[in-house]
Amino acid sequence: QIMKQVPVRFDLKILHIPTHSAEKLSSLKDMDWNDFLQRVCSLLDSTEKNTGAARSKLNLLYYLCTVAVHKEVASRLISSQLFPILIQQLRAAANWDIRAKVARVIGLLALHTSELGENVPVSEAIILLTELIRENFRNSKLKQCLLPALGELLYLIASEEEKREHSRECWIVPSAAYTVLMRCLREG
């Protein structure tokens, strides 16, 4: 059963960064882009544990979902220091709502990126998503949040390797990812 994603809305009032459109973000000069990215990363990497901080992170993730559908922005974001922070949030966030939205951002970035750099830790994201799906295999709601991101990353790697003549060692996909994916398809 495929769960339809609800439209993403973010609250401008509690977002502590400038809310540029995707078109504006793609045209930012390097200095402004780096400043924007630094602010996003520091907000996501915040270790505050109160409900306001969780709400603020969720709101930021909603905003990232809206701009990640732009090809140039997605390519810049996936190749930046944001991607490792998203992986870290997926691993460490206590709140499953945050983990689900992080997975959605990762999936959207993978879907809309036009070029994948060799230094992007895609394999690490695939390993983590595989582990989370395996650990929560009986929770169908969590699987519905995590599987699309895993699928998009696998497709991105396959399409990037198809563009190039030989496969890249940095994008090794563990066989466990295919096993978990096939088990999910078989058992629902």
Question: What are the defining features of this structure?
Answer:
single chain, mainly alpha, Leucine-rich Repeat Variant, 9 helices, about 190 residues
How would the blueprint of this fold be written?
Blueprint: H1 22-26, H2 30-44, H3 51-67, H4 71-78, H5 82-92, H6 96-112, H7 122-135, H8 140-163, H9 175-187
Describe what you observe in this structure.
It comes from Rynchops niger (Black skimmer). This is ULK4 kinase. There is one protein chain. This protein is mainly α and 188 residues long. The chain has a single domain (22-187), classed as Leucine-rich Repeat Variant (Alpha Horseshoe), CATH 1.25.10. The protein is 66% helix and 0% strand. It is built from 9 helices and no strands. α5 (82-92) packs antiparallel against α6 (96-112) and α7 (122-135) crosses α9. The longest helix is centred in the last third of the chain and has 24 residues, at 140-163.
Q: What's the architecture, going by CATH?
A: Alpha Horseshoe
End-to-end CA span:
8 Å
- CATH superfamily caption: Leucine-rich Repeat Variant
Cα gyration radius (Å): 16 Å
Structural domain count: 1
Give the integer mean of the pLDDT values.
85
**How many individual β-strands?**
0
Q: What is the helix tally?
A: 9
CATH topology: Leucine-rich Repeat Variant
CATH class group? Mainly Alpha
SSE pattern, N- to C-terminal: HHHHHHHHH
Counting helices, strands and paired strands, the structural category is mainly alpha
Shape: globular
Approximately how much helix is present in the residues?
Answer: 55-70%
Ranges where pLDDT stays below 50 over 5 or more residues in a row are: none
Protein name: ULK4 kinase
Keywords: Kinase, Transferase
InterPro entries: ARM-like, ARM-type_fold, ULK4
GO molecular function: kinase activity
